[in-house]
Amino acid sequence: MNSQLDTRIGAAKAEGRAALIAYLPVGYPDVPTSIEAMVAAVEGGADVVEIGVPYSDPGMDGPTIQEAVDVAVRAGVGMADVLSAVSAVAAAGAVPVVMSYWNPIERYGVERFATDLAAAGGAGAITPDLIPDEAGAWLAASDAAGLDRVFLVAPSSTDARLAMTLAACRGFVYAASTMGVTGTRSTVGDTAQALVTRTREVAPDLAVCVGLGVSDGDQAAEVAGFADGVIVGSAYVRQLLDGHGPAGVRALSEDLAAGVRRR
Amino acid sequence: MTTTAPVPPSDASLSRPRPEWPDATGHFGPYGGRFVPEALIAALDELSEAYEAMRVDPAFLVEFERLHRDYTGRPSPITEVPRFAEHCGGARVLLKREDLNHTGSHKINNVLGQALLTKRIGKKRVIAETGAGQHGVATATAAALMGLECTVYMGEEDTRRQALNVARMRLLGAEVIPVTTGSRTLKDAINEAFRDWVTNVETTNYVFGTVAGPHPFPAMVRDFQRVIGDEARAQLLAREGRLPDAVLACVGGGSNAIGIFTAFVPDADVRLVGLEAGGDGVETGRHASSITGGDPGVLHGARSYLLQDAHGQTVESHSISAGLDYPGVGPEHSYLHDMGRAEYRPVTDSQAMEAFALLCRTEGIIPAIESAHALAGAITLGKEMGPDALLLVNLSGRGDKDVETASAWFGLAEHTAPTDGDERAVEEGRGGEPGPPLGDADHTTVQDGDAL
Ligand SMILES: Cc1ncc(COP(=O)(O)O)c(C=O)c1O
User: Compositional bias of type Basic and acidic residues: which residue ranges (chain B) (predicted)?
Assistant: First the structure.
């Protein structure tokens, strides 16, 4: 199956660098500005944009992302806005991938979500609270619509779970670099590198991207030294929370994009 | 000389046959399961395995029974409440007195089991979420007893509503962290506790307070709480020579209800009735009746009924009772509901407070406001079922923690005279308006022969 994410991350690899994957939630500070910020992230050098679906109970996110997402939830931002963001990111030339907790997708309708996402030009979805064990409906719908699906692996995943999860992924696998929730940290940690090594042993052809904790170009360079993609979330959101707007997002992207090329 | 290891009683709750559900991966029909980040799966697997080994370990069973008896004060008695029952259409009402447990509610039953499990897996720190504070107090108590470090997450809104319990937890040596995200109630406290757990999973065990959350919590907490119904069933057979016609319990997450229901599930003639918090009334949208007023979705790690909007966002719940003020419910209740084995009904704030006052006046028992929802259910169901019906009500907790809320509702304290402009009474009453004072002519059920 032709995978947008695999193709794009593969192209970065061919250039001898890691891909830059930017996370931003739809609807902070409002829908149009959040989409402008995503486009700015692409202009600054992001290869892939993780388009966050606002959710009332984001159990895996730290205070930075939750603060922004709360605003979007209160404003009633929903899947229609998310699909507009997907189209805008695709038009800007990056690969759009939706990042969503499971309930908003289930509520929208799993098959309907897959169909509409594919029609909007989306690559697929990252589902942080959905493990393949519970993903029957999503595996079928993403196959039918030709979408990528990204599950997470963690340092605590057993070998058996790692193999099962990697077999279910398409596009890339998301390696949670430290045990914990999203949020910027000063060091990314060796556990990330060990986890990447383990996933490569099991699934050498699947791209592995590392997230949770990268905040600047230097850290991006460090992660780019061992991963196929560098995922940055809270640091982008911080730009918006601190009032730097899409311009701040573009500047951060430039710093990070230089980082993933530095190695 | 021969010494024999203590032998657990052959009728220990945990040794009884369990319902056929959940399946090995924690599914109750379409409900339950695990909707959590992969980072927690190893810890949940560890808990599942350790729990399955522990529940058949005679040494654990002996210790658990000993704590129930010597620490909690089990078995809890059955009290018949005839003066209260005069308001229940002639039905007889028997209370299962979980309010008399050490720490004042059923929550201790579960916490002692999970604290022993924590020690068994070698962890030194426990975390817990709490709404009314009863689960937090119970966890802080067990942590003090077993020398574990304890952190309790509690919505900031609830720390105000249940200030007494915050002080109790701190006296017991626990750290109480007020949660200021989202709606600042139980659901947000659960989010924060999960965040703590993901981050500190190597040193920390999450002592979950109800039959919700990811597998194995719904099944494990049920097993720890089923002692309520196992005892009650035997107590009723001994004193009445028969089973009750209906068993009633309030439903927040659903642990006291599952606790009393489980023993009776195979008794097809016994009606199982869960009373959900109806707040201002389900039709107003300001309630916490997940089954009556919600629909299936995923929240806090499991699929079950929940209150959600068109986008799948969790809707804030409303109830005068902090312990029932939760927009979700345990997956086993969703399953029992769908298969028609249990029925779920809403009880409004004012119905609950009326029943609260009635039990105080007629029987000298101050119930938890949570439990007052079950009492209100008995008033309605008794009238429906008519004379001779035998109702068993789980009195899940005592009302000491609720005295301030009740004073404000009824306008009892000197400083909360129930004038329209009384801000404090309005705030504590939570329905926007304080309820009428006891003795108000509208509350004839309370007044019947029970003048202030
Ligand atoms: C006395 C009492 N009853 C009931 C509940 C509701 O919980 P559950 O539905 O799990 O029994 C609580 C929760 O705090 C409680 O304190």
Answer: 421-431
pLDDT classification of A75: cutoffs 50, 70, 90? very high
Average pLDDT over residues B270-284: 98
Lowest mean pLDDT among A2-6, A10-14, A84-88, B222-226: A2-6
List of chain B residues whose C-beta atoms are within 8 Å of the C-beta of residue A58? 191
Buried b (16+ CB within 10 A) or exposed e, A149-181: bbbbbbbbbeeebbebbbebbbbbbbbbbbbbb
CA–CA separation, A262 and B22 (whole Å): 52
Residues of B in contact with A70 (CB under 8 A): 181-182
- Is pLDDT at A184 greater than 60 in this prediction? no
pLDDT mean over B397-412: 94
Residue A103 C-alpha, separation from nearest chain B C-alpha, in angstroms: 5
CA B311 to CA A133: how far, in whole Å? 24
Tell me the C-alpha to C-alpha distance, in Å, between residue B230 and each of B12, B247, B258, B274, B392. Answer: 9, 13, 11, 18, 13
Q: Which atom of ligand 1 is nearest to the CA of B130?
A: 14
Q: What number is the ipTM of this complex? A: 0.95
The answer to whether A246 and A37 are in contact (CB under 8 A) is yes
The predicted model scores a pTM of 0.93
* pLDDT computed for residue A212 by the predictor: 67
Residues B276, B286: contact at Cβ < 8 Å?
Answer: no
Give the pLDDT confidence of B324-379 residue by residue, as tens digits.
999 999 999 999 999 999 999 999 999 999 999 999 999 999 999 999 999 999 99
Q: Rounded distance, CA B189 to CA B158, Å? A: 10
**Paired tokens of A235:** 């640091």
Q: How many CB atoms lie within 10 A of CB B386?
A: 10
Predicted confidence band of residue B447 (pLDDT cuts 50, 70, 90):
very low
Best of A26, A31, A55, A57 to disrupt the B interface (most B CBs within 10 Å) is A57
CB atoms within 10 A of CB B404: 17
Residues B110-133 as b/e (b if ≥16 CB within 10 A, e otherwise) read: bbbbbbbbbeeeebeebbbbbbbb
Ligand 1 mean position, distance from CA A230 (Å): 45
CA distance A227 to A211: 10
Burial label, B432 (beta-carbon count in 10 A; 0-12, 13-18, 19+): exposed
Cβ distance of B195 and A103 shorter than 8 Å: no
